[in-house]
Amino acid sequence: MNLVVVSNRVARGKANEPMTGGLAAALLPVVENSGAVWVGSSGRVRDGAQMEPIAQVEQLGQGALALLDLPAAHYAGYYEGFANSALWPALHSRSDLIRVSQEDYHSYREVNSFVARALLRFQKPDTLFWIQDYHFLSLGAELRALGVKSRIGFFLHTPWPARSVIDSVPNHRELVTAMLAYDLIGFQTEDDRDNFTACIRADLGVLVRDGVVRSRHGHTRLAVFPIGIDADKFAASAAKAASHPDVSRLRRSLHGEKLAIGVDRLDYSKGLVNRINAFDRMWTMHPALLRAVSLLQIATPSRESIEAYGNLQSEVARLVSEVNGRHGEVDWTPIRYLNKGYGQGVLAGLYRSAQVGVVTPLHDGMNLVAKEYVAAQSPVDPGVLVLSKFAGAANELDAALLVNPHDIDGMARTIAMALAMPLNERRMRYEILMTKLRRHSIQQWFADFIESLQDSEAAESVEIGP
Ligand code: G6P
Questions:
Q1: CA dist., res. 465 & res. 180, Å (int)
Q2: pLDDT tens figures, 14-23
Q3: Which of 176, 183, 199, 250 is the most buried (most CB within 10 A)?
Q4: Residue 159 CB–ligand 1 contact under 6 Å
Q5: Nearest-CA residue for atom 12 of ligand 1
Q6: Pocket test for ligand 1, best of 17, 20, 132, 227 (most atoms within 8 A of CB)
């Protein structure tokens, strides 16, 4: 089998390099071992809109990494514009944050078409293409337009929202039509697949029976593949990380105090403001917890050139300083706020040092931090995961303490409850969660998707609009 995996962001695989997103970090170990060619953006742009795509290819595990310089004229409209200022907010049910122009949409389509041309170089008769995430909704249709007949699969790492929200994205009908060029579309949860089904039924009037869309564009299977992690490998790296200087310095600095940890990209979908408000409320409601527990919040800067992200950065920084001003003392800082990224190896050790992991997004496709926090715990004295019921991970990790991130009082109570949870209950919850993590590993996710793509009906020769 020849496999070509495509994602906007790729990873190169140094355990201690900061990783800004779940997707690239999650894919790295499985892509490395699969012998696939992984194609993505080099992070550089080049002039000349009509330029021929040139990939810089290097070895990655048993396969290769192919990095593309994207066209300078379209990069901002594609990445900052349509992908991250129209699709991302809509997919996370934040239509109020949509800022987009027709030029951005045009650039998005141009970049999809450019990447499709670049992929031809890697095509062999039995190649499977597996396209990742919302940056490339129309890439399959572009490949078909170039005559590609191989199987093409797509996996959406984010949620797919209610129909009314998708309706607020300009050109959404063209995009979902283009998505029907895929033979298989994978979602994180059943809700996402059902929302997508409702959207295409209403928008395109197509038939969906037994999870297969039948339209004049051919057949597309819609299925659910919740992404996982290699829990045992993560557990081993957490145990090993105890000797990492950052981890031992953190532990020494605690003087018996308990620690809660949050690790997120600085993104409005992650619910950081609500989380900090919940800690503020908790210290006010339970003064005994002052000096007894602090929050380590790592917020990795992300998409900084986009206004909504800049605004959030200022808002979170202001809020942290208010809360620290209100509850802090000369020798105690309630919230240790780090506006930077850490490598996975160190993070594993930091998770293991915290008695509570707080993962409270307003909406999230899966959220692998939740899974990593659990896997990093010591089986003899595990910490407690407080998890938003709006993260895809909540479907599997229902033995965590589930919270509504809009209910600040409720979150404050639940965090306090997590801190006081007796050892036998912590162990029982940990065992249940670990069993689930082992059952849905990243290797299984990868294998299930590929198997399902291979089994999908042969691509038909179809014309996809617009
Ligand atoms: C999310 C998206 C990924 C993206 C990551 C980091 O996890 O689903 O596609 O790569 O965020 O975002 P960035 O814009 O830095 O690639």
A1: 10
A2: 656 666 567 9
A3: 183
A4: no
A5: 21
A6: 20
Query: Which residues are within 8 A (CB) of 424 and not within 5 positions of it... i.e. 6 or more apart?
Result: none
Return the SS3 of 204.
helix
Q: Is 452 in the pocket of ligand 1 (CB under 6 A)?
A: no
Check if 286 is active-site: no
Confirm whether 364 is a catalytic residue: yes
Neighbours of 273 (CB within 10 A): 17
Please state, in angstroms and rounded to a whole number, the distance separating the CA atoms of residues 327 and 333: 8
The backbone torsions φ and ψ at residue 198, rounded to the nearest 5 degrees and listed phi first, read -60, -35
ipTM passes above 0.95: yes
Q: Around Cβ 302, how many Cβ atoms within 10 Å? A: 18
For 94-127, the pLDDT digits (tens) are 999 999 999 999 999 999 999 999 999 999 989 9
Is the CB–ligand 1 distance for residue 306 below 6 Å?
no
Catalytic pick among 92, 157, 217, 327: 157
What's the Cα-to-Cα distance from 341 to each of 370, 374, 379, 454, rounded to whole Å?
17, 20, 27, 37
Beta pairing, strands 127-132 & 184-187? unpaired
How far is 140 from 324, CA to CA, in rounded Å? 49
7 Cα to the center of ligand 1, angstroms: 9
Question: Ligand 1 within 6 A of 85 CB?
Answer: no
pTM above 0.90, yes or no: yes
